[in-house]
Design a protein that fits this description.
mainly alpha; 11 helices; 2 strands; rod-shaped
Length: 247
């Protein structure tokens, strides 16, 4: 009778497929698994994926096959499938010597998957575009300032009277406040025209509760003009004491 118990005790591990600690080693002895490894070495990754999938059909609990498939799917850019096989590898073999690497690869695959679904703008391209627009805006402002100077000079020349001492003396002695004619001096721009630029940009120091829109209205500008003059300023993060350029 005791011999039967001993025989059953020895037979149980065999019925389970392997002895304790040998399961993962036996996974790699599968012919499909070995063929998959050979195809990986020869860089036939598509054929290797087929062989490892066949190895899983033979043994769905093959942690080694899941690990190889996770790596192959990640290499092929199928990050969702890679995450699945990596996670199955950890579920089937929690004490895997590749556990730390697998967890890192899972995080990387999730990041790649998120980037493919919600791509982020290229910061370098954005910066180049901002620099280009800033340069164009600077050139346009210089052209506008030059046109203002020319317009003010032409207007002043057309309005200024020819020097006639006798006429000027008559106006000063006989004109009354209600009928006197005011002559714009040649050195002053006529009313209604913007003054010539001083050559120095205006600045404004941000105060509490200020917004880009409020600052633009204060100087009779559009908010977009103020933002164009301050390309590196985030309108949502103004702080007291910050200096802004006013075009």
């Amino acid at each position: 009778m005791w011999r039967r118990f001993v025989f059953l005790f020895l037979l149980l591990p065999a019925l389970g497929g392997c002895l304790p600690g040998e399961g993962h080693v036996d996974d790699e002895k599968d012919p499909h698994f070995q063929q998959g490894r050979n195809l990986v070495n020869s860089e036939d990754y598509k054929g290797a994926m087929t062989e490892f999938e066949l190895a899983l059909q033979t043994n769905p609990h093959s942690a080694a096959a899941h690990f190889e498939l996770g790596w192959l799917y990640e290499k092929a850019g199928d990050y969702a499938a890679a995450i699945y096989h990596y996670e199955r590898h950890l579920q089937l073999q929690p004490d895997s010597p590749h556990a730390a690497t697998v967890q890192e690869r899972i995080r990387g695959c999730k990041q790649e998957l998120a980037n493919s679904e919600f791509p982020l703008p290229n910061s370098q391209n954005l910066q180049r575009e901002v620099d280009r627009l800033t340069a164009e805006n600077s050139v346009l402002r210089q052209q506008v300032d030059a046109l203002r100077v020319q317009l003010a000079a032409k207007s002043a020349a057309s309005v200024a009277p020819t020097p006639q001492p006798t006429v000027v003396e008559h106006i000063e002695t006989s004109a009354t406040p209600s009928t006197s004619t005011q002559v714009t001096p040649p050195h002053e721009a006529p009313q209604g025209l913007p003054p010539p630029p001083t050559g120095r940009p205006k600045t404004y120091v941000v105060k509490e509760h200020d917004t880009i829109r409020a600052i633009a209205l204060r100087f009779g500008l559009r908010p977009s003009a103020v933002l164009a003059a301050n390309p590196r300023v985030d309108p949502r993060k103004l702080h007291v004491g910050q200096t802004l350029n006013i075009p």
